[in-house]
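Q: I have 144 residues here and want to know how they pack in 3D. Can you give me a structure?
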Amino acid sequence: MEYVTNSPEETEQLGCRLGRCLGPGAVVAFTGDLGAGKTAFTRGLAQGLGISEQVTSPTFTIVNEYEGGRLPLFHFDMYRLGSSQELFDIGWEDYLTRGGVCAVEWSENVADALEPDTIYVDIRRGEGETQRQITISGEGAPTW
């Protein structure tokens, strides 16, 4: 499915829509340039899961955990990882079994560790400063 958003708020709204559909163990894998809107989309995911905490990029911590919604959200930033082995070293399999949603920025760095039912969200800059072209795909993607 292809979408166009025209502001960070619209990008969050699309993320919220997806977040409402996700079940335990869902993995959402993001691709897109630096500043494309991956964290804005993840803020929306958190809203869709009922999480009221402020969502920030986990660039320096690798993963941020958010509780308090209908499901926990584990927000990963794989930018600094060199391989999927490093992902397993930080406990990836444990996160998958905790019954939450894993949102993975820079997922291309760990693509071989992702399950077949992963939902892929590609965010690209569109026309103008705030427009984004967003593609949601994969076996686990909703069919709205």
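Q: Anything worth noting?
A: The helical segments are 8-21, 38-48, 84-89, 92-96. The beta strands are 2-5, 27-31, 63-66, 73-77, 101-105, 119-125, 132-137.
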